[in-house]
């Protein structure tokens, strides 16, 4: 079976981002007449790339904080144990 589809597609090959090489946008039919599609696509890409970088940083920070908390709790427990045993 052959299905004919008429879609307006915007492809950006140079995203100017270290994470993404290429982006493909499928344009909504009611928005196809607007002239600023390329500008909106670049704006969206910069937002997405910003979010991507923040999420990556948060993943690095959480294990460090967790390690500090666990170390502090274990040290306090060891100190209490030593005092009790003396």
Give an overview in words:
This protein has one helix and two strands; from the N terminus they run ββα. It is mostly helical and 86 residues long. A two-stranded antiparallel ribbon has the order 1-2. The model has no long low-confidence stretch (mean pLDDT 76).
Short description:
This protein has 1 helix and 2 strands.
How are the SSEs ordered, and which strands pair?
Blueprint (H helix, E strand, L loop, with lengths): L7 E5 L10 E5 L9 H49 L1
Antiparallel strand pairs: 1-2
Rg over alpha carbons: 26 Å
Secondary structure: helix percent:
55-70%
The proportion of strand residues reads: 5-15%
Q: How many helices?
A: 1
Arrangement of strands in the largest sheet: 1-2
Topology, number of strands: 2
Salient structural properties:
two-stranded antiparallel sheet; mainly alpha; 57% helix
């Amino acid at each position: 079976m052959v299905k004919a589809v008429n879609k307006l597609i915007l492809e950006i090959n140079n995203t100017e981002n270290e994470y993404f090489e290429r982006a493909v946008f499928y344009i909504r039919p009611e928005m196809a007449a607007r002239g600023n599609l390329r500008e909106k696509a670049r704006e969206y890409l910069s937002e997405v790339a910003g979010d991507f970088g923040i999420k990556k940083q948060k993943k690095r920070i959480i294990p460090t904080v967790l390690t500090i908390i666990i170390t502090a709790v274990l040290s306090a427990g060891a100190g209490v144990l030593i005092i009790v045993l003396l």
